[in-house]
Fold this protein.
Amino acid sequence: MYRVLLVDDEILVRTAMRENIEWEKLGFELAGDCANGKEAIAFVQEQPVDVVLTDICMPYVDGMELSRFLYENYPETAIVIFSGFGEFEYAQKAIQYRVREYLLKPVTATELSELLMRIRRKLEQEQRQEKKLRRMEQATEEYHKNIDMIRSQAISDLVTGTSDPKQCLERLQRLDIVFHSEYYRVAAVGIDTYSEFCSPDNKERQESSLMAFVVGNIAGEILKGWQAGIAYQESSNCIYIIFETNRRREFMEKCGRICREIQDKVQEVMKLQISIGVGVYVKSPKELHLSYASAKAALEYRYLLGSGMLLDMETEHGEEISIYEDLREIAESAKAGKSRDLTASMERVRLRIRSALVGKSRACMYLQQIVRTLGEVQESMLPDDGKERDKREDILNRLIAERTFDSAFDIVKEYTVGVAARLGEQNATSGSRQARMALDYIGRNYSDPDLSLNSVCSYIGISTSHFSTIFKEETGSTFMEVLTRMRMEKAKELLENTMLKNYEIAERVGFSDPHYFGIAFKKMTGRTPTEYAKARR
């Protein structure tokens, strides 16, 4: 049903038309009638209609003004003007407002019915044409979408090295993509919000495909402006760029400027941060997989460097570092309860790990070493009812789950400051001095199989009976319990992080008899050394 609005200042005319026309039979619904153009405008704004039948001469707003309003605001509305003989020439001027039909008053029911039939046929024809046009537009859109997908897949097959390079290049040539430069490199573009380090939820993962499509379009437009390469989207919703140039040295800086422009434009348009890892140069499209691999590796440094990262693998290289000296300084500062020195040492470690550009697993390993070192210091100087060990285990597990290096580091830093504060308080009590000396001595000599209560008492300079009383009061444990626990913790660390044999680990932690070591280890942990290593290594 098409909706019709009747507009005439003569109520008798409106009544006659309303009652004498079989609206529904003709395929129409009389939506309403108005006495002038002003009322009609208000009506249409509230309830849009398909056809307006209007007189010309009316108060307030006449038919011509109404026609102009409809033309400008509701161009899809069909306008029919009926007027007196003297107004007909004037009405013809309404052609500029795309008036469909003109009727000369008086209008009979038959004439109006025939006119409505003609209007209905025209509206139906227009609807069919509109549907056909819409289908064509959808088909065109789908075609371009499919072509883009085919091109992206063909480029991806070449860049990832999953298909024969020669066949990929021939396929791309058929798709009007030809590589003819001397140097190439791949850049990986990742939307930080949807990265694996940010643990996106289901809704965000669903959004990521659309967001990646928009980022790809932005990158493509910028690359087109620079005439520097092409962008494509992988199924992982990560965007990749293939840069190409004949002037490698000059292009190095240009490449950085292009990447920063892409980052700035995405931030401006989408309010999103993206990170870009730029791979190494290669001299042939057949070697693009090498640049692709290094670009992907660079993007993984988001964990270490944070969001909005831009890393060029031609100028940055990761390296292995040792933090042994840093751990020693951290341990000494913690023993002395010097929070300020401890914080300074921790910040130096943060900068060293960052500058080394290590991966997430190694960065976490360094942080775990700090936690274990401080745990040993704390156990050697303070009584432990097991709660602190549980706390450390929880921290070690949390480090792996953190999204960024900075957030993981802050957890460790908070833990170190807490340990230093507790040790500082402990250092303030004179009664614990001898017990602390003993714990420190045990910590330095636990690997000596001949370490005994007598040797500790000799070092401190007190009798064994007096020492046993003081030590039990201060630590809550006996000398042998502390020594065994310290040796077991060291053994656990070696089992987790080395490939040493059980007998080698037994020697390193002060057991001359590997069999006895195995019995003691199982008694404390509930598992044999071999079982523990398989579970934790």
User: Anything to note?
Assistant: The mean pLDDT is 84.
